[in-house]
Amino acid sequence: MNKRNRVFIATSLDGYIADKNHGIEWLETFPIPKNIDMGYTAFTSEIDALVMGRNSFEKVLSFDIDWPYDKPVFVLSNTLTEIPVGLNEQVYFLKGTLEEILKQIHSKGYYNLYIDGGITIQNFLKNDLIDEMIITIIPVILGDGVPLFSKMSTQLKFECIESKLFLDKIVQNHFVRSKD
Q: Which of 15, 19, 21, 90 has the fewest CB atoms found within 10 Å of its own CB?
């Protein structure tokens, strides 16, 4: 079975995924028409499940919307114990090493995973467990905040296989891991 761990995320021009108060309102600096989803629907059609950290999970829960995912969501947390009402069949809490977590998820038949959340993405990268990244750059400089990337002990090479421009402002790059 082909296993892939993929990222689909937006950053500021200076590489932050949230502002210094963990806010993401800046993502709406340039309103996106509803008929432009920048590839998100196609991306999610190719994944089996999502893996996100506690912070991302709690951020999604704070939005005043219905649960936005139609695929299973695995939340990495050492502290959460109670799944919110109505999400028992959609959300699962996991803890352990990333290798143990992936083994559990794969044993359930989920192989193409959407990895989401700053710390989660950083930890997957530190363990060389990211195969693809689609990074949408919003041309705003935040100056401080939650970075997408953190310090690494080894260098990882990626190849940009596609770049797209949306609204003459927003750049989206699609990278795949180069293991040569």
A: 21
The CATH number of the domain where 50 resides is what? 3.40.430.10
CA 60 to chain centre: 12
Residue position matching structure tokens 């991306």: 43
Given a contact cutoff of 8 angstroms between Cβ atoms, the answer to whether 15 and 147 are in contact is: yes
CB 8 within 8 A of CB 121: no
Range of the domain at 39: 4-178
| Cα distance between residue 33 and residue 36, in whole Å | 6
Q: Is the pLDDT confidence value at 3 over 70?
A: yes
Q: Which of 70, 95, 71 is nearest to 81 (CA)?
A: 95
Contact 170, 128 (CB under 8 A): no
User: For the purposes of burial, counting CB atoms within 10 Å of the CB of 111, is it exposed (0-12), middle (13-18) or buried (19 or more)?
Assistant: middle
Q: Can you give the pLDDT at residue 1?
A: 67
Helix (H) or strand (E) segment spanning residue 9: strand 4-12
User: Number of folded domains in the chain?
Assistant: 1
DSSP codes joined into one string, 130-152: --EEEEEEES---SSSEES----
